[in-house]
Amino acid sequence: MIRLLRNGKARWGPIPLPFVVRRWVERRRWNKAPGRLVRLLPSQVTEAQFRGWMSEVEPITAELRENFSKATWAPGTVQGDTAAYDRGPILYALVRALGARSVVETGVASGSSSRYILEALRRNGGGGRLCSIDLPDGTGIPQGRTVGWQVPENLRENWTLTLGDAKVELPKLLEGLKEIDLFFHDSDHSEEHMTFEFTQVWSHLRDGGVLGSDDVYWNQAWERFLGPRGRPEVLVGGMGFTSKGRSPPATAHGSS
Ligand SMILES: C[S@@+](CC[C@H](N)C(=O)[O-])C[C@H]1O[C@@H](n2cnc3c(N)ncnc32)[C@H](O)[C@@H]1O
């Protein structure tokens, strides 16, 4: 669906386009995503590097898939093994490209996104930290598993997992962190909550840092947040990404 925004621009919405057209639009977006994402990043990052980082994660994806294939899901639960694979390579490449040391995410469930981010922090040279917040709601996790079960033991020393409502926990966390390189929202997708998280995080995002969100079409929080800030956006796979500026970090890119 094409929606007309208040600023007069037209925008693709998710809804009633025929399936083949939607699939074509999405494929095109995926193909172009690395080239578009590097334009949000420090200027020395090339599209080829970004694509290279995205393909580094293939073994991680295979392992997550294997783990999920052995899991048992309670009847009627949302099976949380489907959505994570597309966002993983992008999150991984963003952490690598930013040379990130401080990453925050909301919404963990089994911990697929956390796993990709933590792997990238380790490849950046270690010492970085991912702070994740999740309010377990009993969905999206296989039977007998707990939040973040897909994160292996050897990555946990760089991980702070807080269980609680992001509405309460995120402000406390940001206060302690001061500046972050990357934020990814994947928790409560209500317009009110998404707006709350974006607004909270923006002032803590360093110059050049990236703000990302899953499910930006669920409501108008994303476009309403970006509108007055005039920042560029990249839309892919239902996700949205923007950056606060283009200044490179003090130490861009870690080890190979
Ligand atoms: C879509 S899942 C996250 C998936 C995860 N990012 C991944 O890659 O697999 C959404 C998670 O957000 C959690 N959640 C929902 N509302 C929340 C809130 N207000 N604060 C923190 N977490 C919340 C849910 O319990 C669920 O575990």
Chart the SSEs and their pairings.
Elements: E1 2-4, E2 10-12, H1 19-38, H2 47-56, H3 58-69, H4 84-98, E3 102-106, H5 112-123, E4 129-134, E5 159-163, H6 166-177, E6 180-185, H7 191-202, E7 205-213, H8 221-229, E8 234-236, E9 239-243
Parallel strand pairs: 3-4, 3-6, 4-5, 6-7
Antiparallel strand pairs: 1-2, 7-9, 8-9
Bound molecules: S-adenosylmethionine.
S-adenosylmethionine is lined by residues 80, 84, 106-110, 112-113, 133-137, 140, 165-167, 186-188.
What does this structure look like?
The model is unreliable at 247-256 (pLDDT under 50). The strands form 2 sheets. A 7-stranded mixed beta sheet has the order 5-4-3-6-7-9-8, sandwiched between helices. It is globular and about 45 Å long. It has 8 helices and 9 strands. It is α/β, with parallel strands linked by helices and 256 residues long. Helix 1 (19-38) crosses helix 2 and helix 2 (47-56) packs across helix 4 (84-98). The protein has one domain (2-69, 78-243): Rossmann fold (3-Layer(aba) Sandwich), CATH 3.40.50.150.
Strand content: 15-25%
Structural class: alpha/beta
CATH architecture level-2 label: 3-Layer(aba) Sandwich
Describe the strand arrangement of the main beta sheet, using strand numbers. 5-4-3-6-7-9-8
Name the CATH class.
Alpha Beta
Please count the helical segments: 8
Ligands (ions, cofactors included):
S-adenosylmethionine
Structural shape: globular
Give a quick summary of the entry.
This protein is of the alpha/beta class and 256 residues long. It has 8 helices and 9 strands. The strands form 2 sheets. A 7-stranded mixed β-sheet has the order 5-4-3-6-7-9-8, sandwiched between helices. A two-stranded antiparallel sheet has the order 1-2.
